[in-house]
Amino acid sequence: MEFTVSQIALLLGGEIKGDGDVKINMLAKIQEAKPGQISFLSNPKYEPYIYDTQASAVIVKKDFVARKPINSSLILVDDPYSCFTALLEEYHKFISFQKSGVENPSYIGENCKIGEDIYRGAFSYIGNDVTIGNNVKIYPHTYIGDNVTIGDNTILNANVKLYANAKVGSNCVIHSGVVVGSDGFGFAPQADGTYKTIPQMGNVVIGDHVDIGANTVIDCATFHGDSTKIGNGVKIDNLVQIAHNVSVGQNTVIAALSGISGSTEIGDHCVIGGQVGIAGHLKIADNTSVGAQAGIGKSSKVGSKLFGSPAIDLMNYHRSYAIFKNLPDITHRLKQLEEKMLDLQTFRESQ
Amino acid sequence: MEFTVSQIALLLGGEIKGDGDVKINMLAKIQEAKPGQISFLSNPKYEPYIYDTQASAVIVKKDFVARKPINSSLILVDDPYSCFTALLEEYHKFISFQKSGVENPSYIGENCKIGEDIYRGAFSYIGNDVTIGNNVKIYPHTYIGDNVTIGDNTILNANVKLYANAKVGSNCVIHSGVVVGSDGFGFAPQADGTYKTIPQMGNVVIGDHVDIGANTVIDCATFHGDSTKIGNGVKIDNLVQIAHNVSVGQNTVIAALSGISGSTEIGDHCVIGGQVGIAGHLKIADNTSVGAQAGIGKSSKVGSKLFGSPAIDLMNYHRSYAIFKNLPDITHRLKQLEEKMLDLQTFRESQ
Amino acid sequence: MEFTVSQIALLLGGEIKGDGDVKINMLAKIQEAKPGQISFLSNPKYEPYIYDTQASAVIVKKDFVARKPINSSLILVDDPYSCFTALLEEYHKFISFQKSGVENPSYIGENCKIGEDIYRGAFSYIGNDVTIGNNVKIYPHTYIGDNVTIGDNTILNANVKLYANAKVGSNCVIHSGVVVGSDGFGFAPQADGTYKTIPQMGNVVIGDHVDIGANTVIDCATFHGDSTKIGNGVKIDNLVQIAHNVSVGQNTVIAALSGISGSTEIGDHCVIGGQVGIAGHLKIADNTSVGAQAGIGKSSKVGSKLFGSPAIDLMNYHRSYAIFKNLPDITHRLKQLEEKMLDLQTFRESQ
Question: ipTM for the complex?
């Protein structure tokens, strides 16, 4: 990638102050940028860096007034932050979609419909009856089971595993080691103390613009015709467990090492911290926020903020925990009161 | 799979009420079943569904008395639940064991003994001196190290990794991304603050009828001749960590994201919740039940029910936690008492 | 491996007592050793075993005085423990570096520099512009992205995934399923409630003598030129999450299922227990020790010992938790005091 400042300004709908012909080949933080790189200034506390930066260009607010001379070309926009993230996204696409063609050996089954501009890395495996959209990138060692469907522009990094019948939307990024569609953890207890495996015959349906972090697991639904569902725009971090028949609403974010138990429904726009556990068969309402390491045992109301294990309201937890840390003092005060009480009682009886 | 109701009734030893010639090709929940599907009714609260279901057949209790007309054929049995799970199991086997033959390229080393009706997916790897029973299914990208033994009817899904010398029993299902036999986390501290890796030379021995969830890891034992042991009928969920030299007793169940530290022995018929941590060198007795997110730091007695971190008796934890949530009130009452006490003391001294 | 006791004594700089010609082919614990094996005695409480052991040789302290006859040959050294770990290490190297040559099919891209005595297992993948040192062992299904560098004597077990631009030092052991360099979990919230993926363009730099457990994930840094850094001698257990831009200092140890959030810096010689969560942008000072399941929300001082969630000083936590377990008794005492107080007040008012 190499663009001039003018080309970038045109892309962002911004106004140029300085040299528009300077060439840009990379993005960087303002305090670390080097010549040939573009940065941005949004938070005023970073303003001092703009007078020293080696960045060839900086994206700034329209109303930015420099208090000292600046060496970089400036691009003036309404919202430098979102312009910079847009540039990052363009750059990422540019990088991510570079690979194309088929490396050998790779395996493809029968009756597959494969779109255009595909990358199929060496040792990738595509089963039978698979449908893959345009511009999909399938890195080495990725396994796509029978009857899987994948939308346009989705990236499956090295060693993604999609069990049979999974459906993945468009513009998704799935990272290495992710498993989609493994059996749910369902076992029917028998009279002799053993368990019979309940076969898991449903599938997983993943929406568009979903990101799934490395080594995360999403189990399939139990019954044929049912699906474990991941809504559009959901972002799931690494090493997360999503059990059978769970549904996760749109634009919900789940941090690393969290586990969602079977059949729980999570609403839209929720934020689930790291190492959170959510029990099964619950309804977590829209906009619920769950603090790291919380254990959720009950359904939640819209906009709840939860913390602790078992989780309660965030503020209430902090109030109680502040006292918990002081419990030795509490017991000391209690003991003192008991002594004084004994003293008073003795006094009273003595009268 | 397509069977008549009569054939299924014969299999289950049940009696038919209605048309025995109807064809069945799938199993489903009673509230969601469609024509051609079979369901069951066990829990009386689901009875209303039987009068509306589109299921072609329903398995019911022998003494079931319909209060309205039913369109489905009925199969009358002693225990509809276990009959249905038996059918599910048959169906699962039917689905799971469909694959057979060798896809290319795949790799196989020297001196291997391979049974009949094997599936070896493309890019599967079998090392030297490996012994594999009959009807074993090895999906693509699965790695089987040197000197591994695998029993009959075991399924290794895509990308299972068995390090050298592992022994896996018969009728097991191992899911994608599972690692069996990686090095235990053992490091000998040196005088200069560094650690020397203690080589891990034991293996892992897995019994029969064991299910292991996706991306779970089971480390090998430290010493040659020792084994990390997973008993018959054990069910392990996704993303679980089983450290070196652990032994897990028969029919114990471990939910997702739990970790068992080195050399701990877990008894038979235990139920370990999700995200549980168990410290090393403990003995967890038979029938112990551990609540989600608990942290076990001590050995347990038979039948214990544990909760909290560090874990204590479940009921005691709940009693204490109920008060924890009320601690601001407790301190308020304490403060009031202190004021009253001061008041009384002042009064006494004034007399 | 088969050596005489004399050869081993020479290697360890020890003195022989007994037969130096006995042949040794394995290491074992003193209570389990068999003929042909060597063991050690360091901790005096294991002394009784030395009189019964079947070990052909035992490494003991120079000043060890036998109180009964011993059948094994003895090797007398200053520090039996470290001599034994040294032997274990030699043995491990011997085992680990047995594999060599190239198995087919395997894949290698363009412009790679590959050292000598390499093992490249079947289905291993090496991208373009990769540099690999001498004596590196690349097991089957391992993926090495473009522009990766790997130092001498490093072992990548089956199915390791190194994203593009990762740098791995020498003498490292990386276990199956490890993902190095996946995207950090960074999403820019947009006005419409969706998230825009912030492309992650940095890399991961791993030092020398680092061990990484199975299915652990280390995300790359966000900006080009930045790195997520793992210092020399770091030991990371299975299923650990290391987020973008984290740095882990030398000789720090992190147990299974722990998660370190973005941009946190962990010092040297820290010990992080299992299932620990550490929030983002913190500084964990050198020699900090964190108990299992703790949740760290604040930066720590050198030598801190932390426990609980949110974590506080270990001893303080235990003091408070001891009272927590007794809270029903505390409330009972409080209630009694309230009753007595009421009684006293009534008495006072009655006078």
Answer: 0.91
Mean pLDDT for all residues in chain A: 94
- Name the DSSP class of A44: G
Class of domain C3-96 (CATH, top level): alpha beta
Q: Does C196 touch chain A (CB under 8 A)?
A: yes
Q: How far from each other are the two terminal CA atoms of chain B, in whole angstroms? A: 96
Minimal C-alpha gap between C324 and chain B (Å): 6
Count of CB atoms situated within 10 Å of the CB of B317: 22
Q: Which residues contact A335 (CB under 8 A, 6 or more apart)?
A: none
pLDDT tens digits, one per residue of B67-109: 999 999 999 999 998 898 888 878 877 777 889 999 999 999 9
Is the separation of the CB atoms in B321 and A295 below 8 Å?
A: no
Enumerate the residues of chain B whose CB falls inside 8 A of the CB of residue C157.
161, 163, 182
Residue A209 designated active-site = no
Among C180, C125, C119, residue whose Cα is nearest residue C155: C119
Is the Cβ of B123 closer than 8 Å to some Cβ of chain C? yes
Rounded Cα–Cα distance for residues A284 and A288 (Å): 7
Nearest to A88 among C163, C199, C323 (CB): C199
How many CB atoms neighbour CB A66 within 10 A?
A: 12
Is the predicted pLDDT of residue B1 greater than 70, yes or no?
no
CB of B24 within 8 Å of a chain A CB? The answer is no
What is the homologous superfamily of the domain A101-315 according to CATH?
A: Hexapeptide repeat proteins (2.160.10.10)
> Of these residues, C92, C244, C281, C318, which one is catalytic?
C244
Residue at token pair 């008492």: B337
Q: Which residues pair with A24 in a beta bridge?
A: A3
Strands A305-307 and A312-313: antiparallel
Q: What are the residue boundaries of the structural domains of chain C, listed by start?
A: 3-96, 101-315
